[in-house]
Specification:
It is a single chain. The chain has 242 residues and is α/β, with parallel strands linked by helices. It has a domain of 151 residues. Helix content is 33%, strand content 23%. The protein is built from 4 helices and 8 strands; from the N terminus they run H-H-E-E-E-E-E-E-E-H-E-H. The protein has a 5-stranded mixed β-barrel. A hairpin with a 5-residue loop joins strand 4 and strand 5.
Length: 242
């Protein structure tokens, strides 16, 4: 009978069935999560490319009535008059460590339809005091920007916006249905992010930093690394166990 070190090493590797099944399940899950993260990175890369392409395109006239905004950004232009009295201030917007608000100003088109225009971020001095520089002229104008859905929060506590429709009011991620009662015309389902070079705006940086695909590439690398480490541990532990 031939007794070689290679045969003895092969004979010592006999992991129990439960360990093999558990390792296989964990390995499959880790690999699947790695590929899922790669898929998310690809999705966000495409979304970022769509955003940048929209910014580069010349603005086109927004239909009347305006179509509901969807995930694909559109660079559009709108004509109308700002309604300075019923502005909304999206609360709890931090920039460079400073608390502030995003200023949403309604613009009434000639048809009577209301378009919410996000004029950008401005610092808020305190919870009890609104920013001082919200006023905007009511002359007829043409504005352009990105037509986007209203931002959503993971948890919304609701908003009461109908009691004082003419006064500026802080809000927490309101829905179109919550806002509509403030105006005597139809409210378009979307938000116009005012172009950075447009007048009567505040600080504007619309590039969606949360779409950076590098984060997902890092997560994918971690999951694939965990899978490799699991295989190494499985073989090493079960060789030593005999």
């Amino acid at each position: 009978m031939i007794d070689s070190p290679k045969l003895r090493a092969r004979a010592r590797f006999r992991p129990p069935l439960w360990a093999t099944l558990l390792t296989a399940a964990l390995l499959a899950a880790m690999v699947a999560l790695g590929f899922w993260q790669l898929g998310r990175a690809e999705q966000k890369q495409q979304m970022l490319a769509d955003f940048e392409a929209a910014v580069e395109r010349a603005p086109e006239g927004l239909d009347e009535p305006a179509p509901p905004a969807d995930s694909a950004p559109a660079h559009v232009r709108v004509e109308g008059r700002y309604l300075g009295g019923g502005q909304l201030l999206l609360d709890n917007q931090i920039r460079d460590g400073l608390p502030g608000v995003r200023v949403w100003t309604p613009l009434r088109r000639d048809s009577g339809e209301i378009i919410l225009v996000d004029r950008g971020w401005v610092a808020a001095p305190s919870r009890e005091r609104l920013p001082d520089n919200l006023a905007v002229g009511s002359e007829q104008r043409r504005v352009s920007g990105l037509w986007r859905p209203l931002p959503e929060a993971g948890l919304s506590l609701g908003n009461s916006l109908c009691q004082q429709p003419e006064a500026p009011q802080r809000v927490q991620y309101p829905t179109v249905e919550e806002i509509a009662c403030r105006f005597d015309g139809p409210l378009a389902d979307g938000l116009l992010l005012l172009d950075p070079e447009a007048s009567d705006g505040f600080q504007r940086q619309w590039r969606p930093d949360h779409l950076d695909p590098k984060v997902h590439w890092g997560y994918a690398l971690q999951w694939f690394g965990f899978a490799v480490a699991l295989l190494v541990i499985f073989f090493v532990v079960n060789r030593k166990a005999e």
